[in-house]
Structures are given as C-alpha cells and as structure tokens.
Amino acid sequence: MHSPGDVQVEDRPDPEIIEPTDAVIKISATCICGSDLWPFRGVEPVDHLAMGHEYVGVVERIGDAVRNVKVGDFVVGSFVTSDNTCEICRAGYQSQCVHAAFVSVESGTQAERARIANADGTLVATPGRPDADLIPSLLAASDVLGTGWFAAVAAEAGPGKTVAVVGDGAVGLMGVLAAEQLGAERIIAMSRHADRQALAREYGATDIVEERGDEGVAKIKELTNGLGAHSVIEAVGTQESMMQAIRATRPGGHIGFVGVSHGVELPGQELFFSGVHLHGGPAPVRRFLPDLVQLIWDRKIDPGKVFDLTLPIERAAEGYRAMDERRAVKVLLTV
Amino acid sequence: MHSPGDVQVEDRPDPEIIEPTDAVIKISATCICGSDLWPFRGVEPVDHLAMGHEYVGVVERIGDAVRNVKVGDFVVGSFVTSDNTCEICRAGYQSQCVHAAFVSVESGTQAERARIANADGTLVATPGRPDADLIPSLLAASDVLGTGWFAAVAAEAGPGKTVAVVGDGAVGLMGVLAAEQLGAERIIAMSRHADRQALAREYGATDIVEERGDEGVAKIKELTNGLGAHSVIEAVGTQESMMQAIRATRPGGHIGFVGVSHGVELPGQELFFSGVHLHGGPAPVRRFLPDLVQLIWDRKIDPGKVFDLTLPIERAAEGYRAMDERRAVKVLLTV
C-alpha cells in the first residue's frame, strides 16, 4: 500500500532467516483484514508497504533454534509473534508477549512468502496436509476466528448467558460462532445487512437486532427483561460501538472488545456506574490456536464461510475495494 | 450540607416507615466518606441536605413486610439499598439492584435515625449486641471495607499475585487489608504519608511506593520484572489515578476501580493495547457483608483502625474539615 486507496502488487525480495528462531513460510492463502481498511481509508497512516498479517502455508526454511515446526509442515500462526514461554504468554496473553511483534510490521503476509519470528511460539502445525476446503477455515483461525473467540471468552459467553454482538463484520460473525461453541443460550447479532444476518444465524445467532446506538440498546434491553445482555462482544472499535456495548450490558456483565479503538474516549463516570467488566485488546490468538485448529480439522466448525470473495493475490487491490465498499465481508487471496 | 464547605447539625423530623419493606434504625455510629468531600469541596453539586450513607445501629421500627431483621437487632447495612432477590442481586451486584437506591439520597445517616428501604435485602444483623470496640469495624463494613474488598475481588487479588493499590485513603487501606485476606503474595501501597504507610503495612502491605503518575508506574514495573502488577486497586477516581492504575497493570491483569470517577476520560486506544481487565463501580457491599461481619465478630480483621478521629455528631463540621485538609483519614461520628 503506497498511500490510502493505492494498493499495488509488486515484486519484492524474498524474506530471509534473520534470527535462529525465525521460519520462512510459503504462503498458501492470506486475506484482507478489516484493520487493513483503516490505512486504506486514510483514517490511520500508511506506515508499512507490505500488507497482511493473516496466513497459512508451508514451512520452507527454519532457523537453527526452531524445534516445534519443521520444513514441510503446514502451519497456521497468529498475527502477533510470541515466544510462548514468558510469564505473559504463560498467563495466556501471547499477543502481549515480552517479545511480541506484529507480523504486519515485520513482514506482510499478502505475499508469496513471509518471515515469521519466534516460529516455535507462534506457529501451530496442522495434523497433516489439509484438504483444500479446510484452507479458508484454517486461515480464519489466524486472526478473525481467534479474535472473535477471544472476544467471546473475554465477554464470558457460556451456558445460560445472553450474548449480544456489536458489529457484523468477520470478527463479529466469528464472535457469534464462538459464543455458540461456548454454549451461550441466546445470541443476539446486531446487523442490518441481510447476507450477514443470514450468516450470523447459520453460526448460531438466535436473534437479530437491526437498530443501532441507543435504539439498539433499547432493543437489547427489551429482549433481556430490561437488564441488558450478560455478555457483549464489541467488534468495531468506534465511539458509537463502544458506548452501544457498554449500555447494552447489564451491571456485572462482561464486555469483550476487540475492534481496534479509533478515536474512542470512554466517559469514566458512565463506565463506573455501569458496573460492567471490560476486557479486550489484540487477541492472544496463539492461546486458542491448537483447539481451533483441531475443531476445524474435525469439521466441527466452519469459520471459512466468512470469506465471501476469493481472488488471486494479483487482484488484491480489487479485494480492498470490495471490502471498503462493503460488497464483501472478507476477501481471501490465493497465492 | 447547605453549600460547599457549610455543614450544620440541625433538628429534622424523625424518619417514618413509608413502605412496608422499610426499617427505621437508631444510629449508633456513622462517619464521613471521601465521597462526601466532593460536594464539600464544590466539585459536585450539593444535591441533598441530609448527609451520610454509612451506618450501624439498632432496628427501632420495621414495616409489616420485613422478615429478616427485627426490632432490637443490631445491624450493618450497605450504602445502597437492595432487594437482594432480583436477577442482578443474585448475580452479586446488589448495588445495581433493579430497586437500588442510595441511602444518602433517601435518608442521610449522619443523623440520630435513618429510614432504610428494602430492609430485608439491605441489612445484616450481627450475631448479638457488639462490644463497643467492634463498632468502628462494623461501621467500616458499611462502605469502605466493603468497597475495598470489592476492589480487591474485582482486581482478582489472590495467592501468587502482586497487588498494587492506588490511593491511600480509607478505601485504599481497606483494599490492602482485603488483598492480604484474599492471600495476595505481595501488596504495594502507593502512599506518600507516613501515617498511612504505617497503617498500610499493618494491614499487610509489603512494599510502599511514594512516587505518583508515570514515576509511580515505573516503580511498580521495577518491582515486577518490568511487567506490572497482576492486580491493581484504584481508589481515587481521578484521571491521573486511573491512568496510573491502567499503566501499572500487566497485560491480562485486573484493575478493580472503586474511586467514584470525576472528570475521567479513558483513551480507548491505550486501554485496548493495555490488554487489562477493568471492572469497578459502586461496590455491591451487601454481597460481602455477611462474611465481613463474621470476620469482624471473630476479631480476625480490624478495619476500624482506619478511623483516626472520633467526634460526637454535633461536631460533624469539624470532621469534614479534618478530612478535607487530610488531617484525618476517616472520621467516625458517635450519635
């Protein structure tokens, strides 16, 4: 990405092993993230040329210190690299590892190859070479599924709970899937797009609320005896969506917020009197990856349906435009 | 309180039973809360004449529907009345009960008598008439102890945890006591007052940090391998104290914030990337009261030491001034 709106596919040098803990991966599939649209739209600076942080592929080379993956393994990795051994990682916050680095900054994955630092603590090998139809789902695990799953866990979705999901993008839809898998009793998807509503229902949404802002909040309260949802997943990152999440949650309830905050200022007093639990941030996808890979391998979940447009990587610019214009929920790029 | 700084002790009509669920209590002791200083200082409006929301005393009259307490019982109650039966109460958030009312607004307790709504769901009777030396501790349970305890629970203080406490007022000190009781391994009190440091140590603080703001944060990091505390109790309610709490907490750590927010705006992006858990608000004291009363009754904790000035209620104005000028941590008023 050269500037907002200007995405070009170019020849660049192949990544090399730099640290002995690195791996170089031949990417099989990658995708465009909602967060890639922030620079695309000029909302945040275009601070790196090589885009992309979601990936699945085959290990092509490894550094001398890599032990957990080997050349030829098919792997999925988180969008943040982590050593998976530090105290923060062991507590389950690999995205905040003391050696954390964003893949997008280190080595964009919308490419033929990518260098992944701390390969042992970042990558998870699949049980074997996956069937082609599993690739989209495994790719989803790299970020949107892991992020939606984290949001649902942070929101304490589970049996007996009513979960509301703010945001009907890929992460919100994955939040619906995760809430359903975690056993939530009722899942309210907030969406005004028929196609996304349909996918939300397929993933387990029991109710759809089309209203937004205070009207959306009123609707959630109406559906929950006036109390608000037990659990709210926030998957947008704007002032409006955060306030919608806070106001839709009952006192003592939990919000998992994973939409990257843009221009959000939370009013302290309202947050105080709301009595909610607030937890979020960049999802520690690595915490959930082994389980998610297994669920996909066993065909118990099908997160890959969230990709509604597939393009060869040469046509990446077209994919950005389709997502920007909301003609696609999420674009998969084949490499 | 007639206006900021103007506290007068006046004759007022005795409170009456209004609802059949009410009780009228003959107050034995009451006190001045840090939050009473906000209107005293003119930071928030003086919106009620009759001040006070902390109380212990003897039940003098009950409405026809009251079952759990009887005339003659010595009782402690929360500063928020609750039915203790609604869904929110049953989840442990009695301060957000669907019938919640602030005692301070309904009927100030810096008085000879107070009317307590929803007596059954608000009051807890002691096992018998308490010895005089237990009165301060039981009074503390009504708010500051219950609030500090909630903060420690919200911050998930417990075995193996390093807990930092922002704020050395009564609630902060009670947070130290609670963290110690909950089994925290290390408790860092942030205080620059020798007397409060001493009391913090008595209550279980293992370390004292005198620095504030970013310097205080740096000190906490220095004491925790650069990671930050697992648990942070915020007991002030200002922008500076909230940011200090957020920055002193490690990713994945927990903040219990109980200082009533004044002028706080939390930057969404910093909160997002901090990866902390944030939970707080008006403490559901009623959740903890039965256990706290028992701990006090069995003389296992001595929260009453937080009162370092005792005055007859006629001299209430003097008590406000002493707390305002930080000559006293907390003032007990005998009735």
UniProtKB/TrEMBL annotation, chains A, B:
Domain Enoyl reductase (ER): 2-333
Keywords per UniProt: Metal-binding, Oxidoreductase, Zinc
A Pfam family that the UniProt record links to this protein: ADH_zinc_N
PROSITE patterns in the cross-refs: ADH_ZINC
Cofactor: Zn(2+)
Position of the signal peptide: none
Record bears the keyword Transmembrane: no
Top-level taxon in the UniProt lineage: Bacteria
GO MF assignments: oxidoreductase activity; zinc ion binding
Gene3D superfamilies: Medium-chain alcohol dehydrogenases, catalytic domain, NAD(P)-binding Rossmann-like Domain
Similarity remark: Belongs to the zinc-containing alcohol dehydrogenase family.
PANTHER family per UniProt: DEHYDROGENASE, ZINC-CONTAINING, PUTATIVE (AFU_ORTHOLOGUE AFUA_2G02810)-RELATED (PTHR42813:SF2), ZINC-TYPE ALCOHOL DEHYDROGENASE-LIKE (PTHR42813)
Protein name: Threonine dehydrogenase
Biological source species: Glycomyces harbinensis
